[in-house]
Structure formats: structure tokens, C-alpha cells
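Researcher: Quick test of sequence recovery. C-alpha cells follow.
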């Protein structure tokens, strides 16, 4: 992994206080920062876990997490899951699809885990699962396109 990249895990800011002390988050994406902030950490097995705590501002009119918030978090998780494959390169989401599986209440710990199902070139395929307090909330698949540096 490059230590001098602009977007990869190594460049993510380290959280120094609160529930997510020791986790990292990207500060270069104003929308994700305002929506979350969302956090990630590398697990002992080399995979990446993403998480955030569900707050009242993340809820819909029915009192459960808004589907748009779940999809925004899944989009963040795509890039966390693909950290090693991206190797610090810039990329964009080409496709993100999800199936809603269950409601997430306020206060829940929301987590995402997944895997790269195909990589090695400019196009990276990812699948994952978002849970709320350990219960399935959203299964997702996504396609990331690596960008050429100018």
C-alpha cells in the first residue's frame, strides 16, 4: 500500500476520541462526512470493517434508518472493502445495487463487511452486507472504476 496516496486507507484520518477511537475515516468527501461520518478499520484477517452509530438524523418518517442513508454507507463500504485492490488509486462508483432486508433502529451499531469478487484491472466488483446491531439490513453489490491519474 502506498503511504503517500490521496484517498487510500493510509491517508484516512485517525479518530482520536469517542466510540470509534482508533478507526479511520476519509475527510475528502464532504457528503460522506456530513452523512456519517462513517468509519473503517482493518481486521486481523486483512479485511476491512466499516461502521457508524445510527442517530435520529439518519431516520425516515417511520422512525427507522432511511434507505438512502443505508445506500450511502454501502457506497462508502465499497471503497473500504476494495482498499487493497485500489492501492491508493482514485476511483468512482459505476454501479451500486442493494436489497433491503430489515429495519435499523436509532442507536444501532451499523456495520458493513464484504469482499472483492473480481479485481485486477480498472474495474473492481464488490459484494457486501450491512447489518444493524448484527441483524441483516442491506445486501449490496457494486462496481468501482479505477481512474487514470493525470
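Model:
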Amino acid at each position: 500500500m502506498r503511504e503517500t496516496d490521496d484517498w487510500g486507507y493510509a491517508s484516512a484520518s485517525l479518530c482520536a476520541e469517542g466510540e470509534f477511537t482508533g478507526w479511520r475515516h476519509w475527510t475528502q468527501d464532504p457528503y460522506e462526512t456530513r452523512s456519517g461520518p462513517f468509519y473503517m478499520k482493518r481486521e486481523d484477517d486483512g479485511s476491512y470493517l466499516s461502521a457508524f452509530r445510527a442517530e435520529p438524523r439518519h431516520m425516515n418518517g417511520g422512525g427507522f434508518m432511511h434507505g438512502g442513508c443505508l445506500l450511502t454507507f454501502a457506497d462508502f463500504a465499497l471503497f473500504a472493502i476494495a482498499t487493497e485492490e485500489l492501492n491508493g488509486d482514485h476511483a468512482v462508483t459505476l454501479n451500486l445495487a442493494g436489497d433491503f432486508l430489515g429495519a435499523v433502529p436509532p442507536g444501532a451499531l451499523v456495520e458493513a463487511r464484504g469482499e472483492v469478487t473480481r479485481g485486477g484491472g480498472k474495474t473492481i466488483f464488490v459484494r457486501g452486507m450491512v447489518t444493524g446491531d448484527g441483524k441483516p439490513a442491506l445486501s449490496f453489490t457494486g462496481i468501482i472504476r479505477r481512474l487514470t491519474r493525470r
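The domain at 9-146 is CATH 3.10.129.10 (Thiol Ester Dehydrase; Chain A).
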